Amino acid sequence: MFENDRKRLIIAMVLSFLVIIFYPKLLEYLGIETPATRQEETTQEQPVAKKEETKKTTTTAKTETKEPPPAPSLPPEVEERLVTIDTPLYTAVLSSYGGGIKSFRLKHYRKTIEENSGPANIVNPVEGIYPLMTRFKVSGLPEIPAFTIPADSLRVEEGKKGELTLKWQSRDGTMVEKRYVFSSDNYTIDVELKVTNGRDENLRGTVLNELSGKFVVEDSYFHHGPLRRIDGKTKRQDPETTIEMGKGSPEWIGVEDKYFLLAIIPEDNRDTFWESTVVAQYSGKVSFGKTIELEPTHQTLTGFTAYLGPKEYDRLIAMGRGLDEAIEFGLFSLIARPLLVVLNFFERYVKNYGIAIILLTVVIKLLFYPLTKHSLTSMRKMQEIQPQMLAIREKYKNDRERMNKELYELYKRYRINPVSGCLPILLQLPVFVGLYELLSVAIELRHAPFMLWIQDLSAQDPYYITPVLMGISMFIQQKMTPTTMDPTQAKIMLIMPVVLTFVFMSFPSGLVLYWLVNNILSIAQQYQLYKETGKAKA
Question: How many CA atoms lie within 13 A of 505 on its CB side?
Answer without folding.
Answer: 10
